[in-house]
Design a protein that fits this description.
Elements (H helix, E strand, L loop, with lengths): L1 H27 L4 H19 L3 H20 L3 H28 L1 H9 L5 H14 L2 H10 L3 H24 L5 H24 L4
Helix pairs in contact: 1-2, 1-8, 2-6, 3-4, 3-7, 4-6, 6-9, 7-8, 7-9, 8-9
Length: 206
């Protein structure tokens, strides 16, 4: 249980440091407090909240896959492990694509209905195509945990947090403004997806 809990703690530490690093670096690079507050507010309160709406359904699926994978791993039934892993990944991926497309198309309407604003629409447009991969993260984590690779999952999460923070720092100095955070999030999503697929293939889980 220690790797599972530690991975989530490390992820939360990354989210804790994110606004501190971002706001200070943007201010040092000449951005006003008003821009930082309004842009980060739009990103975090509006854009991310819209993009993570489908995560509730994905989390429900990830919670059901752990006992299934654990059961067949214990029975050394690799055929059923691979079958459940492929089923969960394919279902989540296609569901993620569907949600991403709908969010891109109806992002302004969703923002107006939920928050009575269009702030954050541009962030959603950039992030949404990559969030079909973001939705896979909880499934990847659950599969590795169920198959007995919780330490590897924690390692991937830890490195992902460091990569996101480092890329955020570098992009802030490149004067991307709030898009430094957007691009660092995309980099983090791509790294975690790639690394998880490599680990699953290496351990013959897909």
């Amino acid at each position: 249980s220690v790797p599972s809990v530690s991975g989530k703690i490390i992820g939360n530490i990354g989210y804790f440091l994110e606004p501190i690093i971002l706001t200070n670096l943007l201010y040092l690079n000449g951005y006003s407090h008003e821009y930082i507050i309004s842009s980060y507010g739009a990103y975090n309160a509006y854009s991310i909240s819209i993009l993570t709406i489908p995560a509730f359904l994905i989390m429900a699926l990830s919670n059901t896959i752990v006992p299934e994978v654990s059961k067949y791993t214990e029975e050394r039934n690799n055929i059923m492990v691979k079958k459940r892993v492929k089923q969960s990944l394919m279902f989540t991926f296609f569901l993620g694509i569907l949600f991403s497309i709908l969010i891109i198309i109806f992002r302004n309407q969703l923002l107006m209905i939920l928050y009575n604003t269009n702030l954050g629409s541009d962030f959603i447009k950039v992030l949404a195509p990559f969030f079909c991969l973001f939705y896979l993260e909880s499934i990847f984590y659950s599969i590795l945990q169920g198959a007995g690779y919780a330490k590897i999952a924690m390692k991937i999460t830890t490195i992902g947090v460091f990569i996101k923070i480092i890329s955020l720092i570098l992009l802030c100095f490149c004067h991307f403004g709030m898009y430094a955070l957007v691009y660092s999030e995309i980099i983090n999503i791509l790294y975690i997806t790639y690394k998880n697929i490599i680990v699953l293939r290496k351990n013959n889980l897909i």
